[in-house]
Amino acid sequence: MRALVLSGGEGSRLRPITHTNAKQLIPIANTPILFHVLHRIAEAGITEVGIVVGQMAAEVEAAVGDGSAWGLRVTYIPQEAPLGLAHAVLTAADFVRGEPFVMYLGDNVLLQDIGGFVARFERTRPDAQIGRASCRERV
User: Right CATH number for 2-124 from 1.10.8.60, 3.20.20.140, 3.90.550.10, 2.40.128.120?
Assistant: First the structure.
């Protein structure tokens, strides 16, 4: 299982904060949002992560590095423009091809882990599965 983290959005609705900072690096509880995301992914036992990046790619890459701080191996996937979720997956096609993957929005903080969701997917192997942050998955 791999993880695809979408971190290419411009954060236009968060301006002026995002004129100089990537929205995924805005701190929540003194930790950048993206770091919470990477922690949840690592906690679920996923080690291969592709991060789709946009115009703030350099800032995201400088903050995350190679992912080893979370026990992850990170691949950066440049997206020329934030054209939606499906476009981000299409942009990352070479990274996810032939592998099941979790798509996680890099500007979302979930209070629960995603391990149950991943375990259920691996157990049942559906073609697709949508998780909802508002409920807990039963393992």
Answer: 3.90.550.10
